[in-house]
Amino acid sequence: MTTTAMITSHPNPTTDLNVDLLAEAIDAAAACATTCTACADACLAEESVAELRDCIRTDLDCADVCAATATVLSRRTGSNLGTVTELLKACVKACSVCADDCEDHAEMHEHCKVCAQACRRCEKACTELLRAIG
Amino acid sequence: MTTTAMITSHPNPTTDLNVDLLAEAIDAAAACATTCTACADACLAEESVAELRDCIRTDLDCADVCAATATVLSRRTGSNLGTVTELLKACVKACSVCADDCEDHAEMHEHCKVCAQACRRCEKACTELLRAIG
Amino acid sequence: MTTTAMITSHPNPTTDLNVDLLAEAIDAAAACATTCTACADACLAEESVAELRDCIRTDLDCADVCAATATVLSRRTGSNLGTVTELLKACVKACSVCADDCEDHAEMHEHCKVCAQACRRCEKACTELLRAIG
Amino acid sequence: MTTTAMITSHPNPTTDLNVDLLAEAIDAAAACATTCTACADACLAEESVAELRDCIRTDLDCADVCAATATVLSRRTGSNLGTVTELLKACVKACSVCADDCEDHAEMHEHCKVCAQACRRCEKACTELLRAIG
Labelling D27: which of A15, C84, D67, D71 has CA 20 to 30 A away? Predict the structure, then answer.
């Protein structure tokens, strides 16, 4: 709701991006960043940490890419659609890889299950925004 | 809800921080980071941008401090309470300054009004978490 | 020098990325992030801020993408080459767009001249790393 | 050198912060952020990862606080000295804690030795900048 309020109160009356798809992508990316950070830390505290190394790494990478994506998508002054498009592609990839990793441990670790869901939501939101950009 | 799920699924069964206060501080800081980024960009697109310079600067600083705070608070492996405490103090200060600036333009710019609310929420959440840490 | 020391002291003896190209890409991306942040702020303080809006926006986007790139490239546990590749492409794009914008004001504003150089260095380093990945 | 060039080319002719101390704090914080990220990842890849959990966590926290500090210090439009001061204190604390942790493993792990040096440099630079602010 706050995200939509910020988009619609922006002085630029029109946007090169659909408002609903944009708001969902911002919210999904911001939520995924925090969730991946928490999942990396929870994996680190597990007894089986040595087997979770790859998951921690893809969690941390996904958190960084999602945080950058949420931030860049929050800007609408001028237009930087080339950069937005490439970053969305990177975000889709980071989320897809991290979701695959987390789904492998979803039955064992609730935090990986929740994290995989956050990644899939963000992957979907960024894919749909990319499609709308054309 | 996701934030609480991540906290309660963490393998460390107890925490040196209250779960509800912690979840609210993480959510408030993450939301404030995104909102301040959007407000800085909306101010930049305003005709009166020259008069909004200070607001843009405090927005951007607040976004950076809030993003770091949300991320650090999302970790619960081991304990880094000294760093958490100092960072929470910095976040309270950044939010307080940014809210003051945004409230000055709240009647003129809806994005500053929404942003001031996000800052006050985060300022309150971090203050209460600090008090609980003692 | 510190970057190379960190790469060569990593327990993974081999890397899927060339050490010299990797170190240069990390250093160039980290330097570009800080420089773009400073350039956005210097543009904001210029009298002609209203004409520098697009430059500020591409500066800020470039800073975010470069910071994420420097961080992700600093990890070598396991392998996340798909994400690394897409992020490098996004970084090349963000740097190229920002350098174009800054070069337009390079004669007028020394900070834009220095920033354009930082962007071109990072664009080149990421392009060469991408080529080496194949 | 780039950092100093960006500070001196800023349209605000005077600064509330000493230029040399400011440039060193920005460079030290940016370098510490990247080094701590790399050290966390190197610790994660060590056979003894289970004993390095606390070090990984303080590395990651330090990276986040240092990155925010380098970014906020890079801005000089208007003044946000209250926030800068509190953030510098948080950065001194994060670096001090991380250096203590890394020094415990400095003889065993070269990456911890290099990281401890980066933390001590940043701790010193931020302490001196704080003292100059008064």
Answer: C84
